[in-house]
Amino acid sequence: MEERNKQLHSIWGKWWVPIRKWFYPSWLLYETSYRFYDYAESVHPYVINQLEGIEVYIKEIGLQILAAISSIATFAICTVFLTVPACFLLYCFFTTKNVTGTTFEGKVKVYF
Questions:
Q1: CA pair distance 68, 62, nearest whole angstrom
Q2: Residue 84, Cβ neighbours under 10 Å: how many?
Q3: pLDDT in tens, 80-90
Q4: In whole angstroms, what is the distance from residue 110 CA to residue 28 CA?
Q5: Which residues cross the membrane (predicted)?
Q6: pTM (2 decimals)?
Q7: CA distances from 79 to 10, 30, 37, 84, 88 (A)
Q8: Which one of 11, 60, 74, 99 is most buried, counting C-beta atoms within 10 A?
Q9: pLDDT band at 10 (very low <50, low <70, confident <90, very high)
Q10: Angle at 112 between CA 7 and CA 29, to 5 degrees
């Protein structure tokens, strides 16, 4: 019975096990940063188009500054509160033997 209770090796081979703990978090960091950058680029025209009425009070330069600050804030907030914690949890998932203490986790790690 104890022989069948061993952790299986990855389907990609033994060479993949040390690489995956860095590959998956870095891939997630790249993908989410790219998406959040796209969101930030979309915020700028949205602010310009939606707040044309406020342009009378803060002038054109103020509207551009507000749009730029909104874009930067969107990217920074999404990165700090979503991307960094998700990458850290994914790294912990692959470096810790059994994070959740369930058998399902062991079965899923085999495929990654």
A1: 10
A2: 13
A3: 999 999 999 88
A4: 19
A5: 65-91
A6: 0.69
A7: 30, 11, 9, 6, 12
A8: 74
A9: low
A10: 135
